[in-house]
Write a structure and sequence with these properties.
Elements: H1 2-11, H2 16-52
Helix pairs in contact: 1-2
Length: about 60
């Protein structure tokens, strides 16, 4: 929300198309960030399994 408000305040787009384009770009960035965090979590779990085996938390 803050990023969109900053865009509107600083750029002052003249058409609805520019606003929608920026909104879609922000949504795409958020989706990419969520995918990156999910991949990092999966990689951390995979490394944990490699290092400690499947019963790492229970031992």
């Amino acid at each position: 929300m803050e990023r969109m408000l900053a865009y509107l305040y600083n750029v002052k787009p003249q058409s609805a198309e520019l606003i929608v384009d920026e909104m879609l770009a922000i949504c795409s960035d958020v989706d990419r960030w969520k995918d990156k965090k999910a991949a990092e979590e999966a990689n951390a779990r995979y490394n944990e399994i490699l290092n400690y085996g499947f019963g790492g938390d229970e031992e």
